[in-house]
């Protein structure tokens, strides 16, 4: 992992995600870019901003606000650690984040999770959802009150696809300094194909292509994938859950990938790392 982009809107929930990004970049020795995207034509981009500012004045105001955000929430233990800050003007928050991420060749984009109920999740959580679908790299959504004290166990939820193998390889590279246990997990529905046979096939292919000593494989049967996965994450004391965001091809893939990723992003208390299938074609 060489470069991390953290995008903030200065909200309270973004503070914990910033601290997570800061700790992660420090441990893996990655460059950290802290960015804020704003739309000069929209007053809703910052309701606290002074009115009637010119474009240059607005840029300076946003830049000062971003620098203050970082200085206010950076722990003294990081000393003189350099954090790159930049404000990006764009009429689309998503396009602004993606543009900067491509420019610095980011390995991962970090955002804070939002939404405590269905309405709030739909309105306020849309930025992370769109990033998951369109980002050129992995997206790590960090829930409130989550800190990076350890990263010992990562759960990767698989649906036995070729792109899963590429994503798992990326996952190992991203968090290699932590040497985590990675638990490859699949939940088969009752009407699905032979899950055990598929797991053995996937395991064989994966171990042929990936050299990593700390891999484990688990298989469960249930029609409620979300519920079982949440129980499993608690049982293994997972520090992070990762999965692939893919286009829907059939009912199972729609259920297991797109809908599951969105439900995990809005409701889990564990950081969620999402890989976009489109980046591995």
Automatic annotation (TrEMBL):
It comes from the Bacteria. Residues 1-143 form the UspA domain. Coiled coil: none annotated. SUPFAM superfamilies: Adenine nucleotide alpha hydrolases-like. Belongs to the universal stress protein A family. This is Universal stress protein. It comes from Lutibacter aestuarii.
């Amino acid at each position: 992992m060489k470069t991390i982009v953290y995008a903030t809107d200065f909200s309270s929930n973004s503070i914990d995600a910033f601290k997570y990004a800061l700790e992660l970049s420090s441990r893996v020795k990655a460059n950290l870019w802290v960015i804020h995207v704003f739309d000069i034509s929209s007053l809703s981009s910052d309701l606290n901003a002074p009115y009637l500012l010119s474009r240059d004045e607005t840029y300076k105001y946003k830049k000062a606000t971003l620098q203050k955000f970082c200085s206010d929430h950076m722990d003294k233990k990081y000393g003189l650690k350099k954090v790159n800050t930049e404000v990006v003007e764009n009429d689309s928050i998503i396009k602004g984040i993606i543009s900067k991420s491509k420019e610095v060749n980011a390995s991962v984009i970090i955002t804070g999770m939002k939404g405590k109920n269905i309405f709030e999740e739909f309105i306020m959580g849309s930025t992370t959802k769109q990033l998951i679908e369109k980002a050129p790299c992995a997206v790590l959504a960090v829930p409130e009150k989550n800190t990076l004290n350890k990263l010992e166990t990562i759960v990767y939820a698989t649906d036995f696809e070729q792109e899963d193998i590429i994503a798992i390889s990326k996952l190992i590279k991203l968090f290699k300094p932590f040497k985590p246990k990675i638990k490859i997990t699949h939940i088969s529905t009752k009407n699905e194909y032979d899950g055990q046979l598929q797991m053995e096939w996937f395991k064989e292919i994966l171990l042929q292509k990936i050299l990593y000593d700390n891999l484990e494989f688990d298989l469960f049967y249930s029609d409620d994938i979300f519920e079982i996965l949440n129980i499993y994450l608690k049982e293994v004391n997972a520090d992070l859950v990762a999965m692939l965001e893919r286009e829907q091809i059939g009912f199972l893939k729609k259920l297991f990938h797109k809908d599951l990723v969105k439900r995990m992003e809005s409701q889990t208390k564990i950081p969620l790392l999402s890989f976009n299938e489109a980046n591995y074609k």
